């Protein structure tokens, strides 16, 4: 990923925080016919690798786990907040007109050697962890054990586990760091006026980078 120095985020806790907040990853691997991507929720766990380990699963019918070039790194992409930035928000739009639109966003790329985990006990532990994390904020959290055991056993037969010990992490926080303070203040005003959940989230990120 191309990352200008101003946009580079190297702090592992910050990268991990986004991965946990936005767990739906685009998992990209190389197959015999080219690149393949699946969009799957992944659980980040500490230990097993200095940068953590990602665990997920795909349908057994998904050929990605079978047709996998294991010698080539897999890539898991975690996308965070993003927002269009209008050139009308910059003072220069009125003063000289030499402004263009752009897009602000944050993203994390996690690379590593992907392992297929076709193991019942591994899968059960993974599903419980995945469910518990995503049900934590609900009023009455659902647990895997809430469903009939024979039903869970049947469902598990239809999926295959994937494990990715993270070998390297890249983070890109493109949140107007390359602009002047005056321009960034214009971006903050524009995002504030839109007053949508997405614009206000991006506003906080721009503020944090100032």
From TrEMBL:
Listed Pfam families: FMN_bind_2
Top-level taxon in the UniProt lineage: Bacteria
InterPro entries: Split_barrel_FMN-bd (IPR012349), TR_PAI2-type (IPR007396)
Name under which the protein is recorded: Transcriptional regulator
